[in-house]
Write a structure and sequence with these properties.
- It is a single chain.
- By secondary structure, this protein is of the alpha+beta class.
- Helix content is about 30%, strand content about 20%.
- Strands 5, 6, 7, 8, 9, 12 and 15 form a seven-stranded mixed beta sheet that branches. Strands 3-4-2-1-14-13 form a six-stranded mixed beta sheet.
- Helix 3 links the parallel strand 7 and strand 8.
- It is globular, with a radius of gyration of 30 Å.
């Protein structure tokens, strides 16, 4: 069974999603950060001949979080828990659990999760993240005690060791940095879960492999030098460790600040359910039939009314429109609409004609009153910014950025090296040049 996890950072931003799905060819695809509500879902995104899809839409914060699981029909689950045993109690769309029958009578549970992103200095958000990880740990323990095989796939937003972070690996000889880095409660919880009941598929096969990153800072172009982090995981029950065949970081797949991560696990003994869970998108009434947008609602009305496009000349008059209506009442209504349109165009043309002299007079009056000093001042403003300074490390033109983080410097502009972020030892990486824009 090929399981893929991918934080898409907005499902609607993935153009031609059906092609992505076809190229990835998963048996189970777990998507995070779909950022799509039920009303925004369409057939092209939700319904496929080979897959059943299940969405947990964000309810409390629209356009935020959201997860979706696509399952090949040959592995149809018999039960779907959109709340994942109340793991997603905040109703932000952060978890889906699909339950699959096995030939030996046991159950395979695939938990698709999107753990909140937060750091220790963000007290409220960080506590929310800790609570989520604690509930995830309890849920996995509960399932394991019931003799279920468990897979946790998703964006965990935790880096387990220094080799899972380019920044941490660069500072591996700094005791102060490491003490603070390893001291995070989220790392302690996650590593405890790995020791307790789960196996990291990547590290099971490649314990010390470097530069296995799945997420990059797009603003700093971190992907160019593979300077990123590994926060996307596929974890399995310890009893299933021997079933892990291979795994792959698909860094060549673009479209998000994350890339897909896949694991091939020998779950060939999974049986398809004979009944489709009611949470499946094929049961969404708004997606029935071929209708994919509201425009389809007006198809019958368009069939009774044949209209050619309006054509205009210089705006002084409107040419006649060829209209064929199914009734005399329709013809009268169309004639009324044409009359209103012609009247509005004529009025607009007259208003523009009368407005032009006033603009010219105003400009002439204004220019006669402008002093020579003001003229020089205006010209200096129109020249724009001076050429950017050269960075100290590469002597190349620097880039102008704006501080977007809330604080005393919010909105201020500064210059920095234009090269992508990367290891400090690499000449192709960004140097430490920094200069505030002089005002």
């Amino acid at each position: 069974m090929k399981i893929i996890t991918w934080n898409v950072n907005g499902l609607r931003s993935l153009k031609e999603f059906p092609k992505y799905l076809s190229d990835l060819d998963p048996d189970i695809l777990c998507l995070q950060e779909t950022k799509i509500s039920r009303t925004q879902l369409d057939n092209e995104t939700a319904k496929f001949p080979e897959f059943y899809s299940f969405f947990n839409h964000p309810l409390e914060r629209q356009g935020h979080a959201g997860v979706a699981t696509y399952v090949k029909r040959a592995y149809c689950p018999f039960f779907v828990d959109l709340q994942a045993d109340n793991l997603d109690s905040d109703r932000e769309g952060r978890a889906i659990a699909t339950h699959h029958k096995r030939k030996d009578g046991n159950t395979l549970v695939v938990i698709n999760v999107y753990v909140p992103c937060a750091y220790p200095d963000e007290s409220d958000k960080y506590e929310k993240k800790i609570r989520f990880l604690e509930k995830l740990m309890d849920y996995v323990r509960k399932l394991s005690c019931e003799k279920n095989d468990v897979v946790v796939a998703g964006d965990i937003n935790v880096k387990t060791s220094i080799i899972d972070s380019a920044e941490a690996f660069e500072n591996r000889n700094d005791p102060k940095f490491l003490a603070e880095w390893y001291g995070g409660r989220d790392k302690v919880l996650f590593n405890s879960m790995l020791k307790d009941s789960l196996v990291d598929t990547l590290r099971h096969l490649h314990p010390r492999k470097l530069e296995c990153y799945t997420c990059w800072n797009t603003q700093l172009n971190g992907r160019a030098n593979n300077y990123g982090t590994r926060i996307d995981y596929i974890l399995v029950s310890k009893s299933c460790a021997g079933l892990i065949k291979s795994c792959s970081i698909m860094s060549d797949v673009t479209g998000s600040d994350h890339c897909p991560f896949s694991a091939d696990i020998d779950f060939s003994c999974v049986l398809p359910s004979t009944t489709i869970p009611s949470e499946c998108t094929i049961f969404y009434p708004e997606l029935h039939g071929k209708q994919t947008s509201l425009s389809g609602l007006f198809s019958k009305r368009k069939a009774d009314l044949s209209v050619t496009d309006e054509s205009f000349d210089t705006g002084k008059h409107v040419k006649k429109r060829k209209t064929t209506c199914s009734s005399s009442a329709g013809a009268a209504q169309r004639q009324c609409t044409q009359t209103k349109l012609k009247f509005s165009v004529t009025c607009d043309t007259k208003q523009k004609t009368h407005a032009a002299p006033k603009q010219i007079d105003t400009a002439t009056t204004f220019s006669s009153k402008v002093s020579s000093t003001s003229t020089v001042s205006v010209k200096s403003l129109l020249k724009g910014l001076p050429p950017p300074p050269l960075c100290s490390g590469h002597h190349q033109a620097s880039s102008l950025k704006t501080v977007s983080k809330q604080g005393p410097n919010f909105g201020k502009r500064f210059y920095c090296c234009s090269l992508p972020i990367g290891p400090s030892s690499s000449k192709s990486s960004r140097c430490n040049f920094f200069k505030w824009l002089d005002k």
